[in-house]
Amino acid sequence: MDYFSDDAVRSQLRTKTVRGAAITGITQIIRIGIGLATIPLLARLLQPEDFGLFAIVAVITNFALIFVDAGLSMATIQRESINRTQVSNLFWTTAAIGLALTAIVSATGPVLGWLYAEPRLAWLVAVTALTYIFAGLTIQHQALLRRCMLFNRIAVIEVLSLLAGQVAAIVWAFNHTGQANDYWALALIPLVSSGTRMLGVWSACRWIPQWPARDPQSRQMLHFGGNLTVGQACNYLSSNVDQLAVGYVFGDASLGNYERSTTLALQPIRQINGPLTSVCVPALSRLIDQPEKYFHAFRTAVVLVGLLIVPFASLCIVEADKLVPLIMGPGWNDAINIFRLLAVSLLTLPICNASAWLLISQGRGAETLKVQAVDAVLKIGLVGCGIPFGVLGVAAATPIRSLVMPAYLFGVIGRSGPVRSRAIWKLCLVQMLAVATTTTMLLAIRWCSVNSEPSAIVVSALAAGLTSTAIFLAFRFVRTGIADIVRSLPLAHATAS
Question: Is the keyword Membrane in the record (predicted)?
Fold first, then answer.
């Protein structure tokens, strides 16, 4: 396949987008299923202190991982046309960055150990930093697959790499449970996953990079990627400053409860948003000169995310006291209220994440950076205000930020481009109405029910799904969008013929 042909990218765009969304949805269901299966296993084999220890490492190492990509994967995906020289230059750039960051981050391990008075952090950081080498050699191959919308290949790679990392962690934890080195199970997850992903991507994309060469367009791509990178760094800081604060002020045990609550409440939307971004950004980038189709594609994607997240959000808010012990086992009662607070942020978080697609697909890198910088300042300020009120005060920063930030974000987006602020607000209000109605329904069921067993969650989950779906379908544009998706599915074409 010619990964650099513009015709190959634009042909059958609608069908590729719908098929990619379907594949992504199935993939994420599998990924979430793997996560929900392994979270309780690891929670039973390891202690909260182990998760707290690795959470400190993960905040630092995941932050540095942003700079390996340097926004250059999105520069390849978003650009209208590319050539082999440009992508080769970007490949060698990310490879060099990955190698340099491995050395730099490894050197910070002893400093982190001294700061937290925990010498084990030094070796954990050094081992986890090896993932940067694998990532640097993977980014451009994966970007080419996404640009050409070869999502079936990406899906297989993502599932296998996730499974490999989780299996390695469980095997280690099972063989070393209760021992002083059991925490290494958590370090194996990113290391094994990134290595497996690199091998899988190389097998799926047989492109071989050229040696670096001069190209004036490469500089523009680096500039666009630079804006995205700094913006992503701000976003990462705002997303993790609460964990850093909890770990530093309240200790490993509190951080373990906080980190597990964050994973359980927010990981589903994160696992949906990441791969869906890889579907929607290339599709929207190809539709930028067709405003009506552009907005229709964006609106349909937002509705699909809402249909998945709204029932989950309502269920987490109402049934947190049942979900946490059921999934994580005994000993995690301190995580219940943290989990419930974080779930409130799902009121607006999905549509805020989706709105970022508009800025990126329109090439508005500077505005993306500005929005994410404001978001970071807001979150840091809220976390600082919450520290005197304990761990729950810090947790409250996330839902407050998610309710305040849309006003600024939607205003920036509406200044230019095919989508107006009013249209985004309409989508946001529909989703908030669905959450409010579904939550009210679940509270009524809980109040009337005499069954306090965890099995009652099944009834609540079904009620949440049916109620939220009914609210969404009450709007004509939702029904129209779903009908268009159904007509674009391969099965529908086969039936029609």
Answer: yes
265-314 pLDDT, tens digit each: 887 787 777 777 878 888 888 787 788 888 888 888 888 888 888 888 88
> Using CA atoms, how far apart are residues 386 and 383, in angstroms rounded to an integer?
5
Average pLDDT along the chain: 83
Q: Tell me the pLDDT band of 12, cut-offs 50, 70 and 90.
A: low
273, with CB counted inside 10 A (0-12, 13-18, 19+), is buried
